[in-house]
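Model it.
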Amino acid sequence: MKKILIALVAILLIASMLFSCKKDPDPTPGPGSQDGNEDNGGSTVDSTENGTYMKDAVGIYVYGANRVFTEDTNGAIRIGADILPQVDFNGSSKAALSQSILNSMAAIDSVYVAGRSDVPVYGMYAGAAHEYVNFAPDLASVGIVNLRTNRGGMSDESMRAICENNISVMITSGLGFTSYFAGSDLKNSNSALLIYDNYNFTGYLEKVVEQTTEFLRKYGPNGSFFETYTGNYNPIRYLEVCNEPNFQYIFPIKRENGADDANNYLKSCVYALLQIVTYHTVKTVCPDVQVVGMGAGGAGNLDLQFIEDVLKMDNSTCLQMSASKSTGVTLYDILNSVIAESETVRSVMPEGIDGVTNKMDIDTVHTMDILSTHPYNEGVSPFGQDGYQCISKNLFSIRSLLAEKGVDYLPIWFTECGWNISHEEGGKYEVGHCTQLEQAEMEVQYYLYALRNGVDRIMYMSTNDTDNCNYGQFQANSGELGVAGSTNKWVDADWRLCLYAIQTMVNKLPNPEILAASEKCSSDGSSCTLIYTFSPYIGASERDYVTTVLSPMKAAEVEVAWDYDYALVTDLFGATQMVPAKEGKVTLNAGPAILYLEVPTMQDYIDHGINPTAETGASLETAWLGEKFEL
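Modeled.
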């Protein structure tokens, strides 16, 4: 009878989980509010209509020594109320993973977090600062602790939200150069691009100094905003110099066919001037603010060529003034001329530039504290790339370049990246081909990838679908932005699956440091497994370490050495199961959805209906760190 009652309770629990969602719809929406279901009268929203997913309606298979549910799952222990489908990344649109790719990643003992300090890696990009205001409570619940947003959209309201949530913010601040060029034709074949007198470098760099100074004096350390705001003191401490200057955002030079000329050297010249003057402005106005350089678009490794051009520019020709490149002006020529003409620029660079004695003050590699890049890998697992798209190989090249320039210690941040989900999966635009599940799996993989490669911060593009791309972390139809002021909020913002997955990862690895890695591909190359051990936070004891298991390309049975009787296994979305060890190992059916393994606490045993005094034996002597429970 007892077994029957337990079964009935389990059935009712599963049924309730299947029909639950992140939060109940507001039965009495306020005036003007919209949630995409304004006529539902408070009834339960049918998730299938909007392509949303429910946290408790997903799960995974895991395998342990004592197998159950044999009639349903062929010996698997089920986690969650439903079965999470395995995704095969060997499809036609996905690249394969190989041992050579794994071998391209940094050695564990060379991975460092010099720039991260005590701020965790987890971050998000909100294109406009008001978007952060709209989503701040949700992002705090997810565990997002650092933010990228743009200078132009900052307001006192946004700054108050930033302070109240104590989130670490990097502001992207740049200035387009187009209006400072006298010509109108920006085709790369236009001879006007080779005429020095067509460029107003002085006016451009004066404006850079003015807008950077104005912003930092308001929102930087000891800024005027804090003269009246009495809440948590949390000024802007990071400033990124321009968004993707190698693309159209700084100087939109085009090829003859109208396509963006991403590798045009003129863009590198303008950006070098922008970074140098911005750096000296920041260090004059707010010396404690860190300057984040480059911010280059990295799809197809386009970032690498741009970074190399800027860092190796030194005192070589910057603006070529002949088609043969035989004549031209150097970076120092331009800066010396501007400094001589402009008191504004001279105020932040009073010593001037002679190209020799002050080289360390002008060399682009010494005018940034952090290097940022945007390594997109559309539709592909970050672990599953090869050739020109392999991020770890690209990262190795960037680090080698920094080492060549004597700054191998420079922290690297990924300040934009993401996956484009399909319109059918709830995306705003008729683009993209990833499912929400793939987006969730790959975003978590990317955090692992960043940690594995010593990347100190990573910001996903973006809070909502924008720029004709469905990279958003919230459902496009979850609400509409209202008018300015108190109504400028999202109503009942639906989380996409990726946010639940990130929330689970933050809970398990709040401020992680990687300790060990096992990365192996099968002899025939059909599967690869990744096993990483993390300290979840600085100063964690060995019993608190977390082991992650992943098979990015396809399902694979994985054995993990385990010194305890059970492992607490948590899936991508936070569902847990106690899996028994056998002969010193735990056997799992891994896939692209991450698994977390931890040493169970006494409460874990109790919560999962296991009597630790009967089942764990001698390990109890050291397992519970003095905690006492009545069983």
